[in-house]
Write a structure and sequence with these properties.
Length: 350
């Protein structure tokens, strides 16, 4: 069905197509026709950072920023869903147009800028949803909050989403909020994560259940920067790392329409770099912190390669735009097939 709809959707601007697709998925789910949209993947349970997942293929943050479509997305067979990025206060994001397809490269450039309805609206949407799968909530800072007070925004979001999240992701790697990536600098990151980790432990005691905290990092980091981040993560005891966000390096799509647009590049051109960062973090962390591989997964073999590079879980986003919902089951099936062929299991991490 998606193969028939995609040419029509691609005639629309990317954000309009995005909204229509989510609306249509909701109609299909509420009407009981979700099976026409996507097939249910095989069971492939995996445990990572203390959570049992029905399969290792999840939805990356960004597609459902306000958690408005949880039930429809839950019908697609994801092993987990991550919503957000959410900020304390509502904000419109950057000016439109701000999302661009590069079909020849199966890529997307976006500069959305954490457009969202605010953390209180997200929490209300989560409470209304029937979805009971593993839910990650990705938190960020408002555009106008200076970096020296950024931790306060993250603490506000952490406190408000904690009760409703299966895990929380700290996003300091989006290229579309000015200065955000500066928080990845070693000394700044250590202080920042230490404060969030202390709050995480207090909230765990208050709620009687500790929720894992993950950090999402950028792909545009040098070896020394990755060394420093790995050292901070080991010192602070973070629960997991998501490798990676979008890239500001557009060299792979140079000369294409929209290639010079500002924003983060995702999709197929990101795969190699994101996977290299993933493998590098796996080597640095020596298996002590579970990793989530995201960036450029367009087919099942890409997902399996992320696991081979050290990921315990993978996430999709841009691949869904080009391949549609069937990509979820395809990734699960390929991981299952390769593990069966090698005699391995997806296994347990952290």
């Amino acid at each position: 069905m998606y193969d028939m709809l995609r040419p029509l959707l691609f005639k629309l601007d990317a954000e309009t197509a995005h909204r229509l697709t989510l609306y249509g998925m909701g109609v299909a789910q509420r009407s009981g026709f979700a099976r026409l949209v996507a097939q249910a993947p095989a069971d492939l349970p995996v445990t990572a950072f203390g959570i049992a997942f029905p399969n290792p293929v999840g939805l990356a943050a960004g597609l459902d920023k306000n958690a408005e479509h949880l039930d429809a997305l839950g019908a697609l067979g994801f092993g987990f869903i991550e919503v957000g990025t959410v900020t304390p206060l509502p904000q419109p994001g950057n000016d439109k147009p701000r999302m661009f397809r590069l079909p020849r490269h199966e890529a997307i450039i976006n500069r959305l800028g954490f457009n969202n309805a605010g953390v209180d609206a997200l929490v209300r949407n989560v409470q209304r949803a029937s979805y009971r799968g593993v839910l990650g909530i990705n938190i960020g800072k408002n555009k106008d909050t200076p970096n020296d007070r950024a931790v306060n925004d993250y603490l506000t979001c952490l406190h408000k989403v904690y009760e409703h999240a299966g895990y929380i992701t700290v996003n300091i790697s989006s290229p579309n909020t000015k200065g955000l990536r500066d928080l990845q600098e070693e000394a700044t990151l250590y202080k920042f994560i230490s404060l969030l980790r202390a709050a995480q432990e207090r909230l765990g005691s208050q709620h009687g259940r500790r929720k894992p905290m993950l950090l999402k990092i950028a792909p545009d980091l040098g070896e020394a920067e990755l060394d420093a981040i790995a050292a901070v993560l080991l010192r602070t005891g973070i629960d997991g790392v998501i490798c990676t966000n979008t890239t500001i390096d557009h060299a792979a799509v140079a000369g294409e329409p929209h290639a010079d647009e500002a924003g983060g590049l995702s999709g197929k051109p990101l795969f190699e770099r994101a996977t290299a960062v993933l493998a590098g973090m796996h080597r640095r962390l020596q298996g002590r912190i579970p990793l989530v591989g995201v960036g450029g997964i367009l087919d099942g073999s890409d997902a399996a390669e992320k696991l081979d590079a050290g990921a315990s879980l993978v996430q999709l986003y841009s691949g869904l735009i080009y391949r549609g919902p069937r990509l979820v089951a395809e990734c699960v099936d390929e991981i299952r097939r390769q593990r069966a062929g090698s005699g391995e299991e997806v296994g347990h991490a952290g």
